[in-house]
Design brief:
heterodimer, A: alpha/beta, six-stranded mixed sheet, three-stranded mixed sheet, 13 strands, globular, B: alpha/beta, five-stranded mixed sheet, thiamine pyrophosphate (chain A), DH_E1 (chain A), oxidoreductase (chain A), Pyrv_DH_E1_asu_subgrp-y (chain A), PDH_E1_Alpha_Subunit (chain A)
Chain lengths: ~400, ~475
């Protein structure tokens, strides 16, 4: 079968390959495994700085777009479940939700392998899921249970997954940037042609350590891709109030940059693919993902004191990443309305089951408070409030 | 303010007044108008007063404009305008740096670091710039108008980065002051003193008490002197010293101890640097026992371990190094569990200890005494050998007193021992010298065994001697 490539504009309903149209409807429906390449053009063009922008025509397939939908729906439901768990005090501490930004996590995964490294900030639940993390591990970690991905010792801000090269969530804003460039440094030594995606936000873009890391990465040609997740608010401060130059993709100055519509999973995929090739050949590149978060900064922030509800619902109506993919699936006849609704129901059940399972996991033993400080036993002692009751050697 | 008090007094003088609340003392116009406030409101009041009384004072930091994440800066932007109370971008190093600059021009900069856990990017500015500005310019310039405020301390759900108590790091920096209030009334007075003090001050606010602690706070402008400790509970058996939130816990402990017949004297240090030595010494002379308590304890952050990171740094005075080439920062790092601190005393030690440090799977900070880079010459084995970390070595055996040191000062100590021996011909004062090598984690057994034998211990670090008996 010839590889049929058709480019579709958003409003037209061109059927894919003619051979598909000839098939009986029962077979046509089984497209979730169809990897026939489709090319779709991004709605918003890329803006570039010191480099040639990649083409707007993105190569994808029905299977991939469907997987986008399912993965994003799963991420969305997870964040909403986390919201209600936090409100019912099963999750304590801090909880920074990613809903609205799912396209970034799935688009990036589609462009890279599990051997490329990703490191991000505290808004890491969906990135973890994208790296192949299990829902039950995520919920367990959120609730501080043993089954959690960091054994219950990290919490919401510190999800890690070693086998997928996910170097985690970090609490201190911007601190992960030099770390990420360090990962790229190690990758360059290994010569295995892998890259590191270092994610940070528009708030962190004003941290001095970003510029220090950019300089060194550019000087040594490191395969580092710095991704600014610009959701337009650094906690409660809008970008125009905190940055002289809100064109974050240009802030690298001598480092090339690309501005991407972060709510379009396919655009994100294209940009990340381009960035990986660029980084392996030419050194660091900055990607600015124009995205948006529906929730406030964290669960303690209602998210409405510094932006209007109209703004939030406006973005939800016009730019929601899941709705976008849904429209794509429907217009390309890859799935029906009902199939998508069923998929969402399945995802919802998946999430509910995971929550129930996570709730059953026990909390870590109290002795875990004192482990994993040092690798070898150094005899450093620590005491509880009553020295006679609790005296432990740190390991 | 006076007219307000006047109106109040007139109200009080009227007998049988409908206002039955006992909020104000009845002594005519000398009365202190007080109000029941929590910690963040007291701090807010102090900031209002500070900005009101000095037109060249400014409050800035992350999100202070709308009132701040703990409501400490409520109403300031509305009252004093966006030119004096404003938000900054997210960069602590920049915030403090700018504060120093503003203060250097004679203004009062009251800078907020959103959580003490985020103060580390600004640490360099505080230690190397703010603390030394007056000294290095020969008193031409200073940044005394700088006050850095930060909420600190555990609350239970803060996790790794909203619970830290970093006051210990700052206590090793001559040139700044470190102040921690224990209650709303103290906070208002101490903050006003800190803002008006002609030295840069780091003011830590116990976040646990922001809402929890409620006290009658005088409404007028008052200051509580810095570097004056307060004995908040008299006792005779043991002296307890603390600050900030844990005094609440300590007070409860004192009550419990009393039931067992132990009379505790509780001292609130208030200013940690420079601290009120006289009060504490007088108290210890009385009771004979001292217990110092602070929250920071073990920072339990055992997440993604950086395996095998070794940081080498030349340290120590050389005579001509001046401010920035003579510092001995090993003390800072000794408060950070999770890393090791190692200091060699000689070439042979250095090679072995450095190889051990590099191969040790924990992160190690390795300080090299730069004075000895060329000065110290020794026979060093050429092969690959390692000297174990966390094992102190007795380099001079004797019985009367144990001296503990590391790095460069061991040379000085050895000379001192020889001098002492020569001088005391009748009474032999023989000293044992122990090279600690690893400051963290340190070899307690060797030191303890030695002190058991000798009975006296003297610890010498490069900056100043500390005598411990």
């Amino acid at each position: 079968m010839a590889l049929s490539r058709l480019s579709l504009r958003s409003n037209r309903f061109l059927r894919p390959s003619t051979t598909a149209a000839a098939l009986p409807s029962s077979i046509r429906r089984r497209v979730s495994t169809d990897t026939t390449p489709i090319t779709i053009e991004t709605a918003v063009p890329f803006e570039s700085h010191l480099c040639d922008a990649p083409s707007r025509a993105v190569e994808t397939s029905s299977a991939e777009i469907l997987s986008f939908f399912r993965d994003m729906a799963r991420m969305r439901r997870m964040e909403i479940a986390a919201d209600s768990l936090y409100k019912s005090k099963l999750i304590r501490g801090f909880c920074h939700l990613y809903d609205g930004q799912e396209a970034l996590a799935v688009g990036m995964e589609a462009a890279i392998t599990r051997k490329d490294a990703i490191i991000t900030s505290y808004r890491d639940h969906c990135t973890f899921l994208g790296r192949g993390g299990e829902l039950v591990d995520a919920f367990s970690e959120l609730m501080g249970r043993k089954r959690g991905c960091s054994n219950g010792k990290g919490g919401s801000m510190h999800f890690y997954k070693k086998d997928a090269c996910f170097y985690g969530g970090h609490g201190i804003v911007g601190a992960q940037i030099p770390l990420g460039c360090g990962l790229a440094f190690a990758q360059k030594y290994s010569k295995e042609e892998f890259v590191t995606f270092t994610l940070y936000g528009d708030g962190a873009a004003n941290q001095g350590q970003l510029f220090e890391a950019l300089n060194i990465a550019a000087l040594w040609d490191l395969p580092a891709i710095l991704v600014c997740e610009n959701n337009h608010y650094g906690m409660g401060t809008a970008t125009w109030r905190s940055a002289k130059s809100p064109a974050y993709f240009k802030r690298g100055d001598y480092v090339p940059g690309l501005k991407v519509d972060g709510m379009d999973a396919l655009a994100v995929k294209q940009a990340c693919k381009f960035a990986k090739e660029h980084a392996l050949k030419n050194g660091p590149i900055v990607l600015e993902m124009d995205t948006y978060r529906y929730h406030g900064h964290s669960m303690s922030d209602p998210g409405s004191t510094y932006r209007t509800r109209d703004e939030v619902s406006g973005v939800r109506q016009v730019r929601d990443p899941i709705e976008r993919v849904r429209k794509l699936l429907l217009s390309h006849d890859i799935a029906t309305e009902k199939e998508l609704k069923d998929m969402e129901k399945e995802v919802r059940k998946e999430v509910d089951d995971a929550v129930a399972q996570a709730k059953e996991s026990p909390v870590p033993e109290p002795s875990e408070l004192f482990t994993n400080m040092y690798v070898k036993d150094c005899g450093v002692e620590s005491f509880g409030a009553d020295r006679k009751e609790l005296k432990v050697t740190l390991t | 303010m006076a007219s307000l008090l006047g109106r109040f007094c007139r109200k009080l003088v009227v007998p049988g007044s409908a206002n039955g609340s006992r909020m104000v003392s009845t002594t005519a116009c000398d009365s202190e108008a007080v109000k029941s406030l929590n910690l963040y409101s007291a701090i807010n009041q102090a900031l209002h007063i500070a900005l009101e009384t000095d037109p060249r004072s400014y409050v800035f930091g992350e999100d202070v404009g709308f009132g701040g994440v703990f409501r400490c800066t409520t109403g300031l932007a509305e009252r004093f305008g966006k030119n004096r109370v404003f938000n900054t971008p997210l960069c602590e190093q920049g915030i403090v740096g700018f504060g120093i600059g503003l203060a250097a021009m004679g203004n009062r900069a009251v800078v907020e670091i959103q959580f003490a856990d985020y103060i580390y990017p600004a640490f360099d500015q505080i230690v190397n710039e703010a603390a030394k500005f007056r000294y290095r310019s020969g008193n031409q310039f200073n940044c005394g108008g700088l006050t850095i405020r930060a909420p600190y301390g555990a609350v239970g759900h803060g996790g790794h980065y909203h619970s830290q108590s970093p006051e210990a790091f700052f206590c090793h920096v001559p040139g700044i002051k470190v102040v921690i209030p224990r209650s709303p009334r103290e906070a208002k007075g101490l903050l006003l003193s800190s803002i008006r003090d002609p030295n840069p001050v780091v003011f830590f606010e116990p976040k646990w008490l922001y809402r929890q602690a409620v006290e009658e706070v005088p409404e007028h402008d008052y200051m509580i002197p810095l570097s004056q400790a307060e004995i908040i509970r008299q006792g005779s058996d043991i002296t307890l010293v603390g600050w900030g939130a844990q005094l609440t816990v300590m007070e409860q402990a004192c009550l419990d101890a009393e039931k067992e017949g132990i009379s505790c004297e509780l001292i609130d240090l208030k200013t940690l640097l420079p601290w009120d030595k006289e009060t504490v010494e007088a108290s210890v002379k009385k009771t004979g026992r001292l217990l110092k308590l602070f929250i920071s304890g073990v920072n339990l952050s055992g997440f993604f371990l950086i395996i095998g990171l070794t940081i080498r740094a030349p340290y120590g005075a050389v005579g001509h190094g001046g401010h920035y080439h003579s510092q001995s920062p090993e003390a800072f790092f000794c408060h950070v569990p999770g890393i090791k601190v190692v200091i060699p005393r000689s070439p042979r030690e250095a090679k072995g200890l450095l190889l051990s440090s590099i191969r040790d799977p924990n992160s190690v900070v390795f300080f090299e005494p730069k004075w000895l880079y060329r000065q110290a010459v020794e026979e060093v084995p050429e092969h690959d050998y390692m000297i174990p970390l966390s094992e102190a070595e007795v380099i001079r055996e004797d019985n009367d007193i144990t001296l503990v040191g590391w790095g460069v000062q061991l040379t000085v100590m050895e000379q001192a021992c020889l001098d002492v021996e020569k001088v005391s011909a009748l009474y032999y004062f023989n000293s044992k010298i122990i090279d600690l090598k690893s400051q963290l984690p340190w070899d307690k057994e060797t030191v303890e065994a030695s002190v058991k034998k000798a009975g006296m211990l003297l610890i010498l670090d490069a900056i100043k001697p500390i005598v411990n008996y």
